[in-house]
Automatic annotation (TrEMBL):
GO molecular function annotation: ATP binding; glutaminase activity; NAD+ synthase (glutamine-hydrolyzing) activity
GO cellular component entries: cytosol
NCBIfam families assigned to the protein according to its UniProt record, in alphabetical order: nadE
Keyword Transmembrane tagged: no
Keyword vocabulary terms for this entry: ATP-binding, Ligase, NAD, Nucleotide-binding
Source superkingdom: Eukaryota
PROSITE patterns per UniProt: CN_HYDROLASE (PS50263)
Name under which the protein is recorded: Glutamine-dependent NAD(+) synthetase
C-alpha cells in the first residue's frame, strides 16, 4: 500500500575543518542507515565542515572544501537509492547561508537555507551567515563546475520549499527554527507536510535535554506528523560539548531515542512508521483542518522516489517509548568525561596532569577523568574499534587493550599534591587515598623551597620581607604571599606535565587540568595565573552545589570511599598558616558569602539579567524569611564589588566545559567590561533609597 516509511537520523562526532574525518563519518552513517532499510538519511547541522568553524566561515577555502566533500558524497555508491540530507555553508549571490543540501542518485533536489539563526549565548550565527527571509520563495542556484560535472545540473532550487515524494511530503527545519515561536513546522504541517526534519548543532547544558525532547514531541502533538532530529555530538574544537540525543517522534510521542553521551563517533537511529497513523491523527483535529484549508502553500519539489515499499502490510512499525533522562549527577559524570576524551585524542597528547589538593573541586575533576576511563573501557568492551585505536595511540602500545579503568587511569592520568608549610596532613592523606582508589600515578612534592626563593628575591631587591597577617603583616602582604604559593603551583604543574613522562622513560606530554568551579570564577575567588590556569577545565561551568552532589554520586557508583572525608571537610585554599596544626582559613569566610548564595547571585545576574538594584528587589522577597532588607542590600553590594573588582580574571580564564547558563565565561558567552567602577555609586544609592523606604 505504500504507507510504512523507513527513515534514519544520526548523531555524528564531527570536528571543525576535519573534512576528511567528517566525510568518513557521514559515509559510514549512510551505510548504516541503508543497511537497516532506511530510504531517507538526515545528518547534523553543518556536518560537512563541522559546526564550530567560527571565523573560518569567512574563508573561501571552507566553502570550496565543503563542495569538494559534497562532490565525493554525490559520487559515492553509498548515497545511491537513499535521499541524503547534509549540512554545509553555501554562498548564493554573494551572501553566505547555513544550508541543507538534499540529494538523491547524483541529483541535488533542493538547497534549503536556514531561516532563523541562533545568535544568543554561545551562538554567533549572524556573524557568519544571513537568514533566508523570503518565505515560501525559491530561486535558481548556479552550481559550481565540480558539482555540475557529477550531477549534470546547471541550476537547482534554492529557498524555502518542501519535497513531495511519491508517497509523502517532507519539510526541513534547521536547529534554532524548532525553538522559534513561529517555527516553520507549524505552517508546513498545515500545508500537508507529514515528515519534519531538523538538523541541529545543540550543545549540552545541565538539565536542558528535556526541553529539546518536549519541543520535538509538542511539534507533532498539536498538528500530527513525524519529526526527525539529528544532532552533532562531542567536542568539535571549543568549550561546548554537543550532546547527541538524536530522536524520532510521531504524533507527540517519542519512538526512537539516541544516546546523550557516548564515545561512538557515529550513531544512527532508524524507525519504520505508518503514514496512515499521521493522517488518521490529523483527521479528527477540526481546528487544524480549518486552518489548513486557508494556508498559503509551499513550493513543492517533486521527487520520483518513495520512502515506502508497495507491499508493506506486514512490515512492523515502531511503537512509542518512554524517554529516559539522566540525573544532573550522571550528566556531570558523562558529559565532561566524553569532552575530555575528545580533547585528549584530538590533541594527540599522552594524558592529563591534575594538581590534586584534596578538596572537592580537584577531587571532582579527578573523578571525571576516572569516569572517562570507565567510558573508554566500556566502549572497547562493546567493540568500538575507534576508541581502541585511540587508546593504543595515547599509551603508545599497539597491542594494548584497556579493560580495567584503574589500570588505564594509571597510564593516562598523573595527579600531584603540592604541599607547603600551610598544608595540613589531612588534605595530603585525602589526595593520596583518592589517587590510590582511582589508580592515578600520584606525585607528592613540597613547594616551600621555591616560595622562599621567590620571596627572597623580593627581599633582596627591596630590603623588606612580607609577613602573613597572623604574624603582624598587612592584608596586602598576606595576599601577596598567598598568591606566590598559588602561582608557583601553576609553574610546577606545567613543568611536571611536560617532563614527567620523560623522567619515566615514556613519550609524550600531558595536558594540565584546572579545577575552578563556576561560582569561584564568578566571584573571582582565585589567583590570576595560579592552578586555575590550565589547558582545559572540565568543571569550570559547574556549581559547587552540583559538584557536591556529584561527589556523593561517585561514592555510591564508583565506590570511592576516600571522597567521604573530602565531602565532610570545609572547603579551604590552605594558603595561610595553620593554627595549632589545623586549617584556619575557609573559602566561604574568605569570600564573605556562601556557595549557595553565589549560585543565586550568578543566576540572577546572567539568566534574570539583573543589575544591582534589580537583584536587590528580587532578593528581598526571596530572602524575606532570613534577611532584613538592609542585610540583603549589604550582601548584594558586597557581591557586585567583588565581582566587578575581579572581572579582569575572566579574560584569562582557562577554557572550560560549558554546563551552566550563568557561566561568567568571557570568551563569547558572557560579554562584559573587565574594568568597572567598583563603587557602583548610582546603583547602590537606588538600593539605599529603597532600603530607607522599606
Amino acid at each position: 500500500m505504500g504507507r510504512a516509511v523507513t527513515v534514519a537520523t544520526c548523531a555524528l562526532n564531527q570536528w571543525a575543518l576535519d573534512f576528511e574525518g567528517n566525510l568518513e563519518r557521514i559515509v559510514r552513517s549512510i551505510h548504516i542507515a541503508k543497511s537497516k532499510g532506511a530510504r531517507y538519511r538526515l545528518g547534523p547541522e553543518l556536518e560537512i565542515c563541522g559546526y564550530g568553524c567560527s571565523d573560518h566561515y569567512y574563508e573561501s577555502d571552507t566553502l570550496l572544501h565543503s563542495f569538494q566533500v559534497l562532490e565525493k558524497l554525490l559520487e559515492s555508491p553509498a548515497t545511491q537509492d537513499i535521499i541524503c540530507d547534509v549540512g554545509m555553508p553555501v554562498l548564493h549571490r554573494n551572501v553566505r547561508y547555513n544550508c541543507r543540501v538534499i540529494f538523491l542518485n547524483k541529483k541535488i533536489l533542493l538547497i534549503r537555507p536556514k531561516i532563523s539563526l541562533a545568535n544568543a549565548g554561545n551562538y554567533r550565527e549572524l556573524r557568519w551567515f544571513t537568514p533566508w527571509s523570503k518565505a515560501r520563495h525559491v530561486e535558481e542556484y548556479f552550481l559550481p563546475r565540480i558539482i555540475q560535472e557529477v550531477t549534470g545540473q546547471e541550476t537547482v532550487p534554492f529557498g524555502d520549499a518542501v519535497l513531495a515524494t511519491k508517497d509523502t511530503c517532507l519539510g526541513a527545519e534547521i536547529c534554532e527554527e524548532l525553538w522559534a515561536p513561529n517555527s516553520p513546522h507549524i505552517e508546513m504541517g498545515l500545508d500537508g507536510v507529514e515528515i519534519f526534519t531538523n538538523s541541529s548543532g545543540s550543545h549540552h547544558v545541565l538539565r536542558k535535554a528535556h526541553a529539546r525532547v518536549d519541543l520535538v514531541n509538542s511539534a507533532t502533538a498539536k498538528n500530527g506528523g513525524i519529526y526527525i532530529l539529528a544532532n552533532q555530538k562531542g567536542c568539535d574544537g571549543d568549550r561546548l560539548y554537543y550532546d547527541g540525543c538524536a530522536m524520532i517522534s510521531m504524533n507527540g510521542e517519542t519512538v526512537a531515542q539516541g544516546s546523550q553521551f557516548s564515545l561512538d563517533d557515529v550513531e544512527v537511529l532508524v524507525a519504520t512508521l505508518d503514514l496512515e497513523d499521521v493522517r488518521s491523527y490529523r483527521a479528527e483535529i477540526s481546528s487544524r483542518n480549518l486552518a489548513a484549508s486557508k494556508v498559503n502553500p509551499y513550493p513543492r519539489v517533486k521527487v520520483n522516489f518513495s520512502l515506502s515499499c508497495p507491499d508493506d502490510v506486514a512490515v512492523p512499525t515502531c511503537m512509542p517509548i518512554q524517554w529516559r533522562h539522566h540525573s544532573p549527577e550522571e550528566e556531570i559524570s558523562l558529559g565532561p568525561a566524553c569532552w575530555l576524551w575528545d580533547y585528549l585524542r584530538r590533541s594527540k597528547q599522552a594524558g592529563f596532569l591534575l594538581p590534586l589538593s584534596g578538596g572537592i573541586d580537584s577531587s571532582a575533576t579527578a573523578c571525571i577523568v576516572y569516569s572517562m576511563c570507565h567510558q573508554v573501557c566500556l566502549a572497547v568492551k562493546n567493540g568500538n574499534a575507534d576508541v581502541l585505536a585511540d587508546a593504543r595511540r595515547i599509551v603508545n602500545d599497539d597491542t594494548y587493550i584497556p579493560e580495567d579503568p584503574r589500570e588505564f587511569c594509571k597510564r593516562v592520568f598523573t595527579t600531584c599534591y603540592m604541599a607547603s608549610e600551610n598544608s595540613s596532613q589531612d588534605t595530603c592523606n585525602r589526595a593520596k587515598l583518592l589517587a590510590e582508589q582511582i589508580g592515578s600515578y600520584h606525585i607528592n612534592l613540597n613547594i616551600d623551597a621555591a616560595v622562599k626563593a621567590v620571596v627572597g628575591i623580593f627581599s633582596v631587591v627591596t630590603g623588606r620581607t612580607p609577613r602573613f597577617s597572623v604574624y603582624g603583616g598587612s592584608s596586602r602582604e598576606s595576599l601577596a604571599l598567598q598568591n606566590v604559593q598559588a602561582r608557583i603551583r601553576m609553574v610546577l604543574a606545567y613543568l611536571f606535565a611536560q617532563l614527567t613522562l620523560w623522567a619515566r622513560g615514556m613519550p609524550g606530554g600531558l595536558l594540565v587540568l584546572g579545577s575552578a568551579n563556576v561560582d569561584e570564577s564568578l566571584r573571582g575567588y582565585l589567583t590570576k595565573y595560579d592552578c586555575s590556569s590550565a589547558d582545559i577545565n572540565p568543571i569550570g561551568g559547574i556549581s559547587k552545589t552540583d559538584l557536591k552532589n556529584f561527589i556523593q554520586y561517585c561514592i555510591e557508583n564508583f565506590q570511592l570511599t576516600a571522597l567521604r572525608s573530602i565531602m565532610s571537610a570545609p572547603p579551604t585554599a590552605e594558603l595561610e598558616p595553620l593554627v595549632d596544626g589545623q586549617v584556619a582559613q575557609t573559602d566561604e569566610a574568605d569570600m564573605g558569602m556562601t556557595y549557595a548564595e553565589l549560585s543565586i547571585y550568578g543566576k540572577l545576574r546572567k539568566i534574570a539579567k539583573a543589575g544591582p538594584y534589580s537583584m536587590f528587589c528580587k532578593l528581598i522577597n526571596m530572602w524575606k524569611e532570613i534577611c532584613t532588607p538592609r542585610e540583603v542590600a549589604s550582601k548584594v553590594k558586597h557581591f557586585f564589588r567583588m565581582y566587578s573588582a575581579n572581572r579582569h580574571k575572566m579574560t584569562t580564564l582557562t577554557p572550560s566545559y560549558h554546563a551552566e547558563n550563568y557561566s561568567p565565561d568571557d570568551n563569547r558567552f558572557d560579554l562584559r567590561p573587565f574594568l568597572y567602577n567598583t563603587s557602583w555609586s548610582w546603583q547602590f544609592r537606588c538600593i539605599d533609597k529603597q532600603v530607607n523606604a522599606l
